[in-house]
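Deliverable D2.4 — example input (structure tokens):
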């Protein structure tokens, strides 16, 4: 088992399940990481609640350094997320949402966003902000190409 700090940037845009596999092993999924975290802080009673259908205000996903993440608007904690999944903040434990997971929203054009970002050589340069037009990524990629930071 690897420590969280050993998580390496991949050659793709990663989701929470990718992070789980890197940290916990090839059969791990996002939920396994959340369960491990809850157990480590003595909050096993929240596991059942966390697994319930997500409710409350939607959280919007964005890409930071080649990873799909979401930020908690209650405490500013952040975590990796999955397409079609849910968000559970491991910082505040979604306390203001009765410890229930929250729905996660991805942009409709998430594949196009990933395609544009994958043109960039370095994973740390692969960022997309909520609501950012894909045209911005294309313009940035032209600049990055002239600087040798994009694949040609």
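Example output (designed residues):
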């Amino acid at each position: 088992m690897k420590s969280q700090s050993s998580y390496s940037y991949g050659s793709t845009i990663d989701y929470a399940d990718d992070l789980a596999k890197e940290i916990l092993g090839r059969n791990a999924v996002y939920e396994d990481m959340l369960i491990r975290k809850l157990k480590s802080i003595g909050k096993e009673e929240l596991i059942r609640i966390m697994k319930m259908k997500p409710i409350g205000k939607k959280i919007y996903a964005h890409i930071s350094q080649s990873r799909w993440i979401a930020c908690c608007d209650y405490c500013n904690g952040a975590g990796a997320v999955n397409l079609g999944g849910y968000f559970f903040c491991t910082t505040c434990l979604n306390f203001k949402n009765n410890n229930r997971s929250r729905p996660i929203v991805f942009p409709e054009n998430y594949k196009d966003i990933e395609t544009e970002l994958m043109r960039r050589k370095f994973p740390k340069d692969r960022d997309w902000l909520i609501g950012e037009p894909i045209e911005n990524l294309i313009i940035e990629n032209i600049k990055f190409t002239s600087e040798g930071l994009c694949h040609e």
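Confidence is low (pLDDT under 50) at residues 1-6.
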